[in-house]
Amino acid sequence: MTIAFFGTGGTISNRGTEPENYLDYLDYGTVMDARELVEMNPTLDEIAEIRVEPFWALRSKYITAAHWHDLAQRITRVLNEPEITGAVVSHGTGTMEETAWFLHLVINTTKPVVVVGAQRPGSTVASDTQLNLSDAFRVATNPASHNIGVTVVMNRQIHSARDVTKVANHRLDAMQSPVRGPLGVIAADHGVQYWRTPPNPHTCQSRFAGLPTPLPRVDIVHAYTDADATAVEAFLSAGARGLVAVGYPPGTLTKPLDDALEQAIAQNIQVVQASRGYLEPAVMARPGLTQRGLIPNTDITPAKAKILLQLCLAQELTPEATAEVFATY
What is the pLDDT along the chain (329 residues), one digit of tens a residue? Predict the structure, then answer.
């Protein structure tokens, strides 16, 4: 079986600076291309036949929606080749969850797509680069990985792209699924073990599969003490067609934000009400929200809610249809 490998950069592809320096590479380290990363990890040849698909090599903070579209189209095209049985994408951990979630919603395939990163460059002491990369290919070649959507593999855990988020800056277990937990693990004998499969629509089951339309602008507004309408007004002036309002748990806002968002809704701006309670982020659909036109967020992070709202707006869904998508996905 042949696995396509797309390298996009990030810590996993960084040459680092010094063996015990885990910080300076963020500013001074250089990024390797995908072929060099594979060549530095010769044990990968024992796991799968790898076809390197040159892409871009940049830090994840520079990745844009245009990169997502390009990557999704190229992965889809490659996976349509019968001899390609899956794909692995190396990525910086800072925005990994967003890229993985977008791919999870738009790639029309049942083949495994695994996104992998690292917390320490491969040249540093106790780096997680080599093991994470090997585990990603182990997951991509495992038959049980078919038709479960896009996964993120790090620290010997398998996460659904829907559920995973980065919860720490430097720890090796930074990528976690706080609400639902991981899908499975890679055991000490390197066996791939799944505990569950994702229940929500994804990849070939997604209504957004194959969507080529550019994403409209959606911005995120946060509630905090004394938060007023300044951010809302600025985002709308910049052309935002939707907003995600991150409220106090369980989904409330300051009065100036409430007033500003009600005015936005009256102007046909779709607004998703989210919460900053990350262990239980889902906002219940209560009359005080829905009767005002706010769309309750499901149990995904605000950043992922933004992407889902962008996809809904790209399909020109009504607020009612958008609310149904959020309740389903």
Answer: 899 999 998 999 899 999 999 999 888 888 888 998 999 888 999 999 999 997 888 888 899 999 999 999 999 999 999 999 999 999 999 999 999 999 999 999 999 999 999 999 999 999 999 999 999 999 999 999 999 999 999 999 999 999 999 999 999 999 999 999 999 999 999 999 999 999 999 999 999 998 777 899 999 999 999 999 999 999 999 999 999 999 999 999 999 999 999 999 999 999 999 999 999 999 999 999 999 999 999 999 999 999 999 999 999 999 999 999 999 99
Torsion, CA 90, CA 154, CA 11, CA 311, rounded to 10: 50
Looking at the DSSP bridge assignments, the partners of residue 244 are: 220, 272
Tokens 């995600």 belong to which residue?
244
pTM, rounded to two decimals = 0.96
Classify burial at 81, counting beta carbons within 10 Å of its beta carbon; exposed 0-12, middle 13-18, buried 19 or more: exposed
Chain centroid offset of residue 158 CA: 14
Which residues have a catalytic role annotated?
A: 11
Long-range contacts of 21-30, Cβ-Cβ distance < 8 Å, separation of 24 or more: 21/124, 22/120, 22/124, 22/170, 25/121, 29/121
- Expressed in angstroms, the distance from the first to the final Cα of the chain is 32
How is residue 240 written in tokens? 């935002």
CA distance 93 to 187: 22
Rounded to whole angstroms, the Cα distance separating 11 from 90 reads: 9
CA distance 329 to 316: 17
